[in-house]
Amino acid sequence: MLAFAIIYLVWGSTFLAIRVGVREVPPFLLAGMRFVAAGAVLFAWMRVKGTPSPTRREWAAAALLAIGIFVLDYGLVFWAEQRVPSGIAAVMLATIPVFTALSEIVVLGTQQLTLRLALALLIGIGGVCVLVSRSQSFGEVPINPKGALALIVAALSWSIASAFTRKAPLPASKPMSSATQMLTGGILLTLTAAVLGEFRDFHVQAVSRGAWFALAYLIVAGSIVAFTTYLWLLHHESPTKVGTYAYVNPVVAVIIGYFLGGETVGPRTLLGTLFVLVSVIVITTTPAKKQPETPLAEPLQEVARE
Asked: Which of 136, 176, 205, 257 is most exposed by smallest CB count within 10 Å?
């Protein structure tokens, strides 16, 4: 119960921590600091335990995946949270299973389009439309269009990158694989921050304790503690039970954003969240139907959001 509480509450609360952090630290730089630190700690821990260091080929594969998962996904999420409430960001990212299912049907051919799946996809897309609509805001302030677009691209990027993990020559150890991806992703995010000129706008002495606490929370609680707990749960509970974090995290994020972040929760947010969660639950509980004619008909490897 404690382990489930950790992945539910901690991962759900990281969205507000991101929003607090990006108020004072440039987004790509903040994301880079988070994952360099978390990846280095996890990498060192696995090496102490005797896990072999990744080969050059595995480092290269991790770096390639890190572009989609960390630079495009996390980088855009941190950037978007300068403009979009943390609860909305969490709900938008909950659409990842929707985009993953679409890629399985349209691109990879590993899933068949059934009536159940089609309805779930339509509901999920409808939820996104409700959240980003500027004409039907139901009395709420419209979402920043650039932030909304960034979150959609982030969800798409994660979905596409996760599809390639099954082909990538990553370390056999899942914790070492995650450490490698986090470390390379953090380095690439930091380089992106440098290219975008974020270091020029960053002054350490101007950052408040609250922002530093948010970063420490993202590193320790969000990436190290919660992810380690997630791996432990995978060995003690069914993947279906563990996967329920995908439904709970957005709800937790919306609630925490409302009570602790002062974010508005109105009819549009509630309706869009309901649509997305119904879609995700239906999609993730729909048995995969393989296409025997194609060699690509394999289940996608699950990728855990740190």
From this structure: 205
